[in-house]
């Protein structure tokens, strides 16, 4: 992407943020489990009945239905929950919890929407860990789900993972195997697809003050998540012939439910766009630094320096606490920031004010191709406030771009 086009996109994004464009995102479904009774199981329903297990708090009518009472409402919630949650749902065995729009007759049907963009998020707390523990799934054709948002690995080495198949047939698999997730601990996990990138988000709320991107991939030319299908899964006759259910607490494979999640689930939400808010704070801006094409000769090092202006384009003051460089998997590279003249933590940026800092990158010998690094500004103020990143003194060999999470 050329520099003028990038600048125009950044300007458009800034204008949209300033005009509260965020409110335009549609929440398709939100299961917060606040409608339950402590210690009681949700209403159990066979595939031929219409007893709602838990309601869709978005008001769209994408309620969840349950085939076996192996789950119950509990008060085990994240301490200091950003949603002020008081109840979660605990799965103690193989539980089939899913949407059934043929019964709930939603006003905005999650099952029949082909998602050009999506943001799916949840708080999870596992009591038993293992591979492919799916907490949000999308039933699909070919005997398998179209989407699995899940965890894998034993306690102490667990990690978040997402797999989904887009309309063109491509499967995206993103995992972050270095997170060290454990049992009986709350985590925040999300997947974001904005039409250009697929991202896996993760946070440990006990230590993280915002969610971060732990894995991502470029999207192809047709990355959307499909809606209904005409195939009826064999051996699962209760499913209508043209509807794909969404599930909470399990996946779908070999024409049947599987990959059950054991533990606590809370605040599961699905949006059809990536411009809305999030249930856990996230950074607003990542300045992407694209490494230059070419090969660095062994024994020869070079350094590139980039001066960046970080501007508060919100309408309230922000307190900038830190600027965090993220080298991703390129741990032997050096990526440093010179913040001379900035008081960190505690730099106050009033509306319209800006600060400058310098980014210096030295790659390891033998580097080939290109690589994105991120620089994440942390602020103690509301994550809904916005930054803009403006560049100056750019080396010809170093391209920069901006990703705004808004």
What does this structure look like?
The chain is mainly β. Helix content is 5%, strand content 38%. It has helices spanning 3-18, 101-104; strands at 27-31, 64-66, 71-74, 88-91, 97-99, 118-128, 133-138, 147-152, 159-165, 171-175, 187-193, 197-203, 212-218, 246-248, 251-253, 256-258, 262-271, 285-290, 304-312, 318-326, 334-338, 347-349, 354-362, 372-379, 387-392, 399-404. The strands form six sheets. Strands 1, 3, 4, 6, 11, 12, 13 and 17 form an eight-stranded antiparallel sheet that branches. It has a five-stranded antiparallel sheet with strand order 10-9-8-7-14, with no helix packed on it. A five-stranded antiparallel sheet has the order 22-20-24-18-26.
Q: What structural keywords apply?
A:
single chain; 406 residues; mainly beta; 26 strands; 5% helix
**What is the end-to-end distance?**
21 Å
Helix content: under 10%
User: Shape from CA axes?
Assistant: globular
Number of strands: 26
Unreliable segments of 5+ consecutive residues: 1-24, 45-50, 229-242, 289-300, 391-406
The number of helical runs is: 2
Strand content: 35-45%
Largest beta-sheet details: 8 strands, antiparallel
In N-to-C order, the SSE pattern is HEEEEEHEEEEEEEEEEEEEEEEEEEEE
Give the overall average pLDDT: 74
Helix/strand-derived class?
mainly beta
List the quaternary state of the chains.
single chain
Specify Rg, calculated over alpha carbons.
Answer: 22 Å
Structural topology:
Elements: H1 3-18, E1 27-31, E2 64-66, E3 71-74, E4 88-91, E5 97-99, H2 101-104, E6 118-128, E7 133-138, E8 147-152, E9 159-165, E10 171-175, E11 187-193, E12 197-203, E13 212-218, E14 246-248, E15 251-253, E16 256-258, E17 262-271, E18 285-290, E19 304-312, E20 318-326, E21 334-338, E22 347-349, E23 354-362, E24 372-379, E25 387-392, E26 399-404
Antiparallel strand pairs: 1-17, 2-5, 3-4, 4-17, 6-11, 6-17, 7-8, 7-14, 8-9, 9-10, 11-12, 12-13, 15-16, 18-24, 18-26, 19-23, 19-25, 20-22, 20-24, 21-23
